[in-house]
C-alpha cells in the first residue's frame, strides 16, 4: 500500500534509529510531503534552536502520491529551520530520489543530532544503515553520487547529497540529487553539512500497491494528456523553462544589475533558442512527459566538454541579467558550478549582483574583494565569485553568510541595495509592474520566493470567466478578482489560492508544472482528489484537500511566528516603492509599488487567511483546522 | 493484422522511467521497477539513456533452453511467450537471455517477460517521445529512411537542387 510507508527518526549522534508507522490521522490532516513535514518540524524543532546546531531536525520526505500512477510524482521535500532566515526552511526537488525512498519503504525521515565524523545513510528495503562518508567528504555533487554508487556496488541507487558548499556551511547551500535536481532554497545543504551528513542513498524493491491499478493507469494517461496538450507544456518540452526569459525580458520584468533596471537589452545570446548549440537532448524527472531541462555540454573555455543539465530560467537571471552578463557560456558554466558545489543558483546570483552594486557605489572596494573586480557584465568575476562563495574565500566568505548577515558585516548603507524578504534573496523577477507577484514574495512562508504563491497566470491577462472558474473554487470565494496584472484589487485572493494549490501539490509530491502554475488548465484540487482515491483508496474531496493545504500553510505560519517573525517581515525592500522602473514595454515602464495600496493588499490577504491584523492565525481558524494545540502560547 | 515490432531510440529517451512504472502497474498492480519488463539503463555522467527490454528474438535463447517447453512463439504477435502452467521456475531462461529481459518474481515463483501487452504495449502508449515504439514491420525502413534523409533534404531546400 502507498499508505504503509514508514517514518524514521534517526539520531546521528547516537546512531539510534526508530521506525514508526504513519498514523492515518496524520494522512487525513496533512496528507504527507511538505504538509506533514511542517507539522513534524513544528513538533520536533525546539523553539529558538540554532539552525546549524544538532537540535534542528532535518526532514526529508516523499509526498503521498510519489512513485504512483500520478504523472510527475517525483518530488522530494526537505525541511528544517533555515540557517539563512532563522525561520522556516523548505525546499523541493525532482529527480528519482523520492520514488526510490518509497520503494525502500519510507515516506519521512526525521534526522537529528550530529555525527562525530562525516557519514551517509543507506536506506534499503526497510533498513537504515549509517556508513562512513570519509571517501566522499570534499567531493562535489556529481562525484559524490558516483562514489557512493560504486561503494554500494549498485549503479541504480538514488542518492541525495551536499557538495562542498554544504560542507563549508554556506548558508544557502542546497541538497541535490542527480545532475541538477536541487532542493535549492533556504540553505538545507548547510543543515546537512552541520550534521556531518554528506548524503542519503536509497535502493528499494518494495512494491507500492496501487488501489485501483487499471483505473489509475487510465487516469494517469488522461492527466498526462491534459498537461502536455497545453501550449506552455509543449514549449517547455522543447525549450525548458528558459523560454520565459525572452518574454519577461522584452516586457521589462527581469531584475537587471541587481535592481537598477528591469530589462537587459541585447541579451539574445542567453535566450533559450541558443541552447540548441549545446543541448544533447532533454531530460525528464521520474514519470514526467514535460521533460523541461536540457542535457548540455559546455563548449568553450576551461570547462569545455563538461556535461551538465539545465539551465533553468533562474540561472539565466542569476548569471545573466542580474549581474549584467550576456554570455550563454557564463550561464552554462555558472549553472554547472553551483550544481556541482551544491548551492542555490538564485541566491548565489543575487548575492553577486548585490556585491557588484556595492562595488560600483564604492561601498566595497578591491581591498575588500582582494583584487576581484566585481564589475557589471564581467564573466570572469561572476565565475570567480561563485568559487569564492562555495569555498568561503575572500569576499565569498562574507557573501556565503547570506543577505542579512553579510549586510551587517558590510555596513548599514549596503542594506539599502539588498533585494530580499525575510533574509532570503528574490528571484531575478522584477515585480514593480505586477502587484500580485509583489504580494506573493512579500508574504511567502520561506522568504522572497515565487514558488510559494505566485499567480503566474495573472501575467496572461486571462478572460474573467477563466479566473472565476479557478479562483472561486473550491471554497466559494465571492470577493473581487481582476484580470489585468497592473491591478491591486482581487490579487490577494489569487496569491492565497496559489499558496493553497502549491501546498497541495507539495503534499502529494507532484511537480508544480503539473498544476496551475504556468497554465490555468493544469490539474488542481479536483484532479488531486481523484488521483489520491485511485492510487491509495483514501477519500478527499477537493475542499478537503484545500483544508489540508490551509492547515499545512497555517502551521508554517505558526512556525515562523514562533521563531520571531512579525508583520513587518511581510514587506518589500524600499526600492520597490521608491525607484520606478526605467525600461520595457509601456505596461512595465515607470512602475513602482504603491505603499498604501500594498498595505491594504496585505490586510486583505491576512483577512482571507483568517489571520488577525498582525498576521497571527485566529483561534477560530486553528479550531476549525483542528490544530488548536499549536496555538501561540498554548 | 500487420506485423509489428518494438523498437528503441536512445536519442529520444529523456530517462523518465514512466515505461517501467506503467509496466509494473499493468502487469502486477503495483509500482515497482524491479518487477517491470522494461528498464531504462542510464549513464548518469554522460546523459545517455537506453531503454532495455525483450527483443522477441527470432532465435530466442530463452525458448531454446527451456527444459519444459514452457516458452513458445506466439505467431499472431510474433512474440516470445511463457506458458506459466508449464514453467517450473528453474530460471534457466533468466540466465540465457542476453539482454536481462527475463525476470524472476520470487513471490509468484515464476519467471516473467514482456508480453507486448497483447498487442498494445503500455510503455509505448505512455512514451510521449516515442523512445520506445511499436511499428509495422513494412513501414520500419521507410520511417527510418525518411528520418535519415531529413538533413539531406534540408540542405537541398536551402541551397537549391541544381
Properties at a glance:
heterodimer, A: 634 residues, alpha+beta, Aldehyde Ferredoxin Oxidoreductase,  A, domain 1, Aldehyde Ferredoxin Oxidoreductase Protein, subunit A, domain 2, Aldehyde Ferredoxin Oxidoreductase Protein, subunit A, domain 3, 3 domains, six-stranded mixed sheet, 24 helices, globular, B: 162 residues, Alpha-Beta Plaits, two-stranded antiparallel ribbon, 5 helices, 9 strands, 23% strand
Short description:
Chain A is α+β, with helices and mostly antiparallel strands. Chain A is about 40% helix and about 15% strand. In chain A, helix 1 packs across helix 2 (about 35-45) and helix 2 (about 35-45) packs parallel to helix 21.
How would you explain this protein's 3D organization?
The complex is a heterodimer of chains A (634) and B (162). Chain A has 24 helices and 18 strands. In chain A, the strands form four sheets. Chain A has a six-stranded mixed β-sheet with strand order 2-1-6-3-4-5, with helices on both faces. Chain B is α+β, with helices and mostly antiparallel strands. Chain B has helices spanning 18-28, 61-65, 92-96, 122-126, 137-159, and strands spanning 4-8, 30-31, 38-43, 48-53, 71-74, 79-82, 103-105, 110-112, 132-136. In chain B, the strands form four sheets. Chain B has a two-stranded antiparallel ribbon. The model of chain B has no long low-confidence stretch (mean pLDDT 93). Classes of the chains: A alpha+beta (634), B alpha+beta (162). Chain A binds chain B through residues 67-69, 71, 96, 99, 103, 142, 145-146, 178-179, 205-210, 213, 216-217, 220-221, 224, 228, 237, 280-289, 291, 295, 307, 309, and chain B through 11-12, 14-18, 21-22, 24-26, 28-35, 44-47, 122, 125-126, 128-129.
